[in-house]
Amino acid sequence: MIAVNNLGIQFGKRVLFQDVNLKFTPGNCYGIIGANGAGKSTLMRILSDQLSPTHGSVMQGPGERMSVLEQDHFKFDDCTVMETVLRGHSVLWDIMQEKDALYAKEDFSDEDGIRASELEEKFAELEGWNAESDAAALLSGLGIKEDKHYTLMRDMSGNEKVRVLLAKALFGNPDNLLLDEPTNDLDLETVAWLEDYLSKFENTVLVVSHDRHFLDSVCTHTLDIDYNKLTLFAGNYSFWYESSQLALRQQQQANKKAEEKRKELLEFIQRFSANVAKSKQTTSRKKMLEKLNVEEIQPSSRRYPGIIFTPQREPGNKILEVKGLTASVDGEVLFKDVNFQVEKGDKIAFLSHDPRAMTALFEIITGNRKADEGTYEWGQTITTAYLPLDNSAFFNCDLNLVDWLSQFSNDSSEIYLKGFLGKMLFSGEEVLKKASVLSGGEKMRCMIARMMMTDANTLVLDSPTNHLDLESIQAFNNTLQAFKGNVLLSSHDHEFIQTVCNRIIELTPNGTIDKLMDYDDYISDEKVMATREKLYAKA
Q1: Of 279, 392, 417, 507, which is the most exposed, with the fewest CB atoms less than 10 Å away?
Q2: 3-state SS class at 446
Q3: For 536, how many CA atoms within 13 A lie in the half-sphere containing its CB?
Q4: Alpha-carbon distance 480 to 309, whole Å?
């Protein structure tokens, strides 16, 4: 349990939030959402005592233990992987250290013996004898194999460190668990493992994430930070989004009677709660929705970017033909002998255990890289717009955003260019920002504006949700669902792939899987699973 009383924080004259009174209770998972800069991470730092509030207090239940996902990836470089995870339960770790120090003494006294027996008792109470096996199970679930459990953290890759630190946060069944962007750098399979783990977790969880499928799978409540106001809603992210959109549409229907609006909202709640029962959500979460007061549903003041792709011409019958493509990095094969033909209306998700494989494929078919072997050919009617994984080369300049965007446009008029920037939420003085000082999210929105101007009928998207906030991801997702052309994409966003794509192509060093099915069916298909296992197995 975490109780927040009269909490407020401000930096100089800027008030982030004030007079916050909330209680987070066991058995619930609270998804914290809000625009970039709204204060999500700041709230997490206050709750975990890493930052002092301007006023107010944070309390835990008596004797409760809090665990936080570490953001410093170098903090434990001198520790082994196993030691790092065990440190997640600080009480147990301190007992283990003191116990080992006592037994290592050459002049072991009677007092030492009494103290050792006390420690052994506490150690047993905390199930210390199972600690290493529990830690090993967490690591294995998160994709860290046994042969690396006693490797030094400094010798682990950045991606592996993320997984170890996540295992550290989960270790020891903490009473209160705080996770800030836990799915970053995780592949889709590991995210699915984490979703399953947290859906069974019986204590209090607070999580910040841009992954909508993850939020939907684990959250019982949504805490919305919007214009200095914190509002707690029953239900997951999708419920919050769809209900707030419905409330907004109702607000705009001034002539509709109040009773009609109420009936519409009640019907929505009933439909949504029926769908919840089919997902991983528990019965208790379903009941919460059923108890929800209709008056609690309010329109959101959140701003969504206007992402619109309008193909100038309809694609012909020939889209893209790929024959025998092979790519490698430093002698390591990413994929070989890849053959596929893109059909009209295809929206394809490309998967691989190695994300470099998708980037290599996209770089090859967009003419930015040569294949080791093989050919590709676009149809004559096809115009492409490419969103690369690494966009840094586009922003190594001192141009303001209007001048930056004009580089990619046939129409250099300021009104035309400002229109596209406005759709991407750059307004007023913001359009005069230098391209070189933009944040990751701002750069992505500029790249999307650049794509929109091409009027392309085929979109090639390498990790399109990277750096974007939930509002931009949602808007991008909605647009791609309605897009009349072809889409080739790679993503770590489950919801994005599931709702946009109708075909899956998986690239492995030993062959390709190509299935005309949605993502949820693909990952649950037993034949596909067997094929994947075979293709990823080392020769």
Answers
A1: 392
A2: helix
A3: 13
A4: 8
Residues 377 and 321 sit within 8 Å (Cβ to Cβ): yes
DSSP, res 436: G
Return d(Cα 164, Cα 166) in angstroms, integer.
Answer: 5
Domain ranges of the chain: 1-64+175-299, 303-383+455-539, 392-454
Distance CA 358, CA 411 (A): 33
Reported pTM: 0.86
The mean pLDDT value for 37-58 works out to: 92
Give the phi and the psi of residue 447 in degrees, each rounded to 5.
-65, -35
Residues 302-328: tens digit of each pLDDT: 888 999 999 999 999 999 999 999 999
Q: How many angstroms separate the CA atoms of 28 and 176, rounded?
A: 10
Question: Do residues 215 and 280 touch, judged by C-beta distance below 8 A?
Answer: no
Across 119-128, 228-237, 482-491, the highest mean pLDDT is recorded for 482-491
- The span from the CA of 254 to the CA of 262, in Å, is 14
For the cut 50, the answer to whether the pLDDT of residue 278 exceeds it is: no
The pLDDT of 414-422, averaged and rounded, is 95
Please, are residues 436 and 391 in contact by the beta-carbon 8 Å criterion?
no
Instruction: Judge whether 1-64+175-299 and 303-383+455-539 match in fold.
Output: yes
Distance of CA 520 to the CA centre of its chain: 17
Question: 422 burial class (0-12, 13-18, 19+ CB within 10 angstroms)?
Answer: middle
Helix %, strand %, coil % of the chain (to 5): 45, 20, 35
Statement: residue 214 has pLDDT above 80: yes
CA distance 80 to 96: 15
The radius of gyration of the chain from alpha carbons, rounded to an integer in Å, stands at 26
CATH number given to 303-383+455-539: 3.40.50.300
**3-class state of residue 225 by DSSP:** strand
User: Do the Cβ atoms of 317 and 380 come closer than 8 Å?
Assistant: no
Written as one letter, the residue type at 308 is I
- pLDDT exceeds 90 at position 502: yes
Instruction: Kindly report the CATH class assigned to 1-64+175-299.
Output: alpha beta
The whole-angstrom separation of Cα 71 and Cα 445 is 26
On average, the pLDDT of the chain sits at 91
pLDDT digits (tens, 9 = 90+) for 160-189: 999 999 999 999 999 999 999 999 888 888
Q: Output the six-digit token pair for 91.
A: 């009480």
* AA letter at 482: A
SS3 58: strand
The pair phi, psi for residue 226, each rounded to 5°, is -145, 115
- The pLDDT assigned to 279 comes to 44
Higher-scoring residue by pLDDT: 508, 291:
508
* Beta-sheet strand order (sheet of 221-226): 66-68, 176-180, 204-208, 29-34, 221-226, 229-234
pLDDT of residue 280: 46
